[in-house]
Amino acid sequence: MPKMTSKPKSFIDGVFDQLPDAPAEAAPTPDERLYQTTFWASRGEMETLDRRLQELRWAGWRKASKAVLLRSALKVLLDLDLTGVRGEEDLERLLRERLAAR
Question: The pTM is what?
Answer without folding.
Answer: 0.59
